[in-house]
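Worked problem 6 (solution included).
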Amino acid sequence: MENIVTTKQKIIALYWLMRPVNSFTAFVAVIVAMLIAIDSYTLEPIVYIYIGSAAFFTTAQANTHNDIIDIEVDRINSPERSLPSGKLTMKEAKIWAFTLFILACVSGILIDISLGLNFPFSLFWAVLNSTLLDLYNWKFKKNGLFGNFIVGYVVGALFFYADILINQSLTRISLIGLFAMQLNWGREVIKGIRDIDGDRAGGVRTIGVLYGPRAAAIVGTALIYIAIMSTIPLIIIPVIDGGSLMLPIVLFLFDIILIYYTTNLIRNPEPAIATRTKVILLRLMLLAVVTVTIEQIISKF
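Solution. The predicted structure is:
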């Protein structure tokens, strides 16, 4: 006898299908990037909401599409998720993914209209990154390291977008984007340690599948160390210039924690430790975003 799924359960399943923590992190991160890029609050508050919404819906759509493509892998790796658990049908998930894509495009259009842009840059950026992420889910994810790079790039793209939109060039904002890109690239490689069995069954050629968990731990850690190196100017320059020390202190502590957990992972490249490291990285990224937001608000008053 089939389990009857209530409307409330379906709504909750749709909510978790978006990976709300990841999507909300994208919402906040792009707003922070905008705050850093501009010298003063020259944008209407509603424009920030549009910008954050475009990032949120783009990320949510990609996460939903990922679960649609990966349903067979998730039956092994994450059977509790919305689709493999039977809380949602494939048709419902596809309709939800399309709805989120439309919402991302509408948000992009509203940004371009609000800013009076002649070229619909925000709409273009939303479509470009949604397409890139869908291609990743459909094709490039099985290419292992390159697929991991795409995930990292899209996170960095939040900052690249703000830099290009406001400054029409790549400035120090893009350096933060580079840090975010490398950190997430390494996180994706480490995530593959937990998913080795399911990835092998699904034909995903991650570092973990090809060379084992220790190799994945080493490669993921190397990428994270490159991210740490990109924070050095962000730590040193404010100290030399006599600026606010809030961000340098947080980044320094951030780097120490990263080194500790990744070193421990290399010593013990077990799935449980890889999962804990992945979660810690996500929480640290969210903490970094909140810290930068506070630092920017304080600096503008």
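Discussion: The CA atoms of residues 20 and 60 lie 7 Å apart.
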